Known about the structure:
The complex is a heterodimer of chains A (356) and B (403). Chain A has helices at residues 2-22, 112-115, 176-182, 196-199, 212-218, 244-255, 312-318, 336-348, and strands at 61-63, 75-81, 88-90, 96-97, 103-110, 119-128, 133-140, 147-149, 154-162, 165-173, 202-205, 208-211, 222-223. With 356 residues, chain A is of the alpha+beta class. In chain A, a hairpin with a 2-residue loop joins strand 11 (202-205) and strand 12 (208-211). In chain A, helix 6 packs across helix 8. Chain A starts with a helix and ends in an 8-residue tail after the last helix. At the A-B interface, helix 3 of A face helix 2, strand 4, strand 7 and strand 13 of B.
Amino acid sequence: MTVSKFHILSILLIWLLYQACSTPLQSTVQVPPEGEFFELLSEYELSISGESGFAPASQLIKYEVTNSLFSDYTSKERYVYIPEGKNAYLRTEGHFEWPEGSILVKNFCYGKEQVGEEKIMETRLLIKGSDDWRAISYQWDENYSDAKRSKLGDIIAMEINQGSEKLSFDYIIPNKNQCKSCHNANEKIEPIGFKYANLDRKINLDGREISQVKHLVEKGVISLNNEIELPKTMVAYSDPSADIQDRALAYLDVNCGHCHRPNGPGNTSGLYLQYNEKRSNHLGICKPPVAAGKGAGGRSFDIQPGNAEESILYYRMLTQDPGEMMPELGRSLVHEEGLKIIKEWIESLNGDCTSD
Amino acid sequence: MNSSTNSHNLRTYLTLICLLCIISCKSDKDVVSHEKVIPNGYEFLQELLIDAKPNSTIEIPEGLYKINRSLSLDNISNVTIKGAGKDKTILSFLEQSSGAEGLRITADSISLQDFTVADASGDAIKLQGCNGVDIRGVKTTWTQGTKSTNGAYGLYPVQCVGVNIDNCEAAYASDAGIYVGQSKDIIVKNCYAHHNVAGIEIENCINSEVFDNLSENNTGGLLVFDLPDLKQINGKGCKVYRNKIINNNLKNFATEGNMVAIIPPGSGIVLLAAKEVEIYENEIINHKTMGVGICSYHITETSWKDQRYDPYTYDIKIHNNTLERKTAIPDVSKRFGQMVNMLFPGKPQDILYDGILKDDATGKNPMNICIRDNKSEDLRFANIDAANDFENVDRNLSAYDCL
């Protein structure tokens, strides 16, 4: 009996000593071996242990994007982790070349006014291996003590307050394969939002307004290259003072352009929705659908200039049928604010689609 | 005594009603069922698909799997997905609430065998960018009848290289049952396509062979199309032979706006901006509008901006086919059908050529359309001179007697 008590005490003592020595003031972000994921989010040590919810470790740098994909009215918190002494350098087309071991972290959240509490729906990670990125989502437990890898995704019945409305819908956590449905360039996983045109903005840091690009350079996250011409900065689609075409293209770029680009999976249609796309046919103006099926909604062209209601692009943003709607994944609700911008833009366009 | 006779009569009456119902329902609805129902089909199958090892086989035991989200296999090569038979292993997407297709494959050397995909919210099986596709004994269908809300395509390989589709069945697609798009080196054989808008469609493809298929009761039996503004355009090289293309007179139930919505019911084979197509030894039977249509993209009356695009149909050989028309009035529901009716009131045509030529074309047969040795009682051919408001409709085949 006494022996056993002594044992327990000594084990406890060893454990306490171990804890005291092994808990550094600063956590160390852990990157799983090539091709693998940790089962629990806590294993990455991206979040300070012992805290409820996501408390970013000191090595994470918070960043913002000017325009964000609509995800059923979630707000998103974004962080980047880059291995000590490395950085991501700008490539010619405005994306970055990342060092192995980089991690992009994104929390999908609803706020108090929406659901009565601060709720994290999921935390998604993009992890850079030696060649490729890999992507996965972590789903939090009820107490926000940790989040578990979600291989198969999930459907969560939600009710949120949005403006004066109460919206009921299924919030969908993607499965492992579905991450690549959006994060896809030439059939390889790539970050979407983290690109120069979408990062070049003012941010508020400790009460000061500063350039985010400058901040990220100073923090050693990114490096620019004098020889590369800096890409055109995107306007915020929500900025009513900006040109309506710029706003619409900024919206389409972040909500559709990840698939609808020449090296994305939406290239089967020939519809390319990039901020810098100039060709009217590839923007969908007077372009007949290719494989839209019922998604065409009885309309003849992707964009009928001057008439949003008669445009397939508008229809597919408006519908909630999974076999018709765009984007194919990532929303269950209709983004009314986005819809308004697209409508205003289409109605500002001139021309007709009759063949000469 | 009396009551027993009454009940006997009632029973006969009910049996008759039931029989009638079965007969009438069977003609325009498909039924899939299995006594064993697996409720969590998504969880069961998606886990197998994510954990699949290269060079492995995923066996799906018999049963009806209820699936509520898209299934996908990504970037794991040389995987075989095998059911117990298309009537035994049924993936039912009737309760699908998320995802634009039933099964999505983005992996090389994929083999799909012996199962059915039913009621996908969008396309049934989409395979994109796959190098090596082998599909055998697979069925795609929708069970609510010929509805415009059915998914567009049944079997849908796009941007693939090396596609083999053998002994498959595709039904009730609101666009094409079997649709191969922007792909290379394709074989479609021994398949059965029915109750689709288009039975089989080859679009923007290079080097395809379509043979020994049965395409019946669709709006159009077989289409070879080429469309502008796509990544792969100016498809060419398609052999269509030994197919039975029969009785494709179904109402066109495609959503307006889609290219296939222009197809008039009663179309056997339609070529649109097609190049190097050889059509031979087919039975093209019982169509009320046209057996074979040869068209330029101009006939769609839509414009394009793609400088690379060649909208004309040329280098076509149509020979040794058996053609029989349906005794009926050509379609009046579509502009194309109305045009046939206007030019040839009440008379279905065997081979219809829009006669639209390249600007610099000269000679009697500048687009090299060869039509010879087809079996038909009195072959009805017409070059309708569509570019000049049908001014010189020419019914003489002699200019096309070449091979």
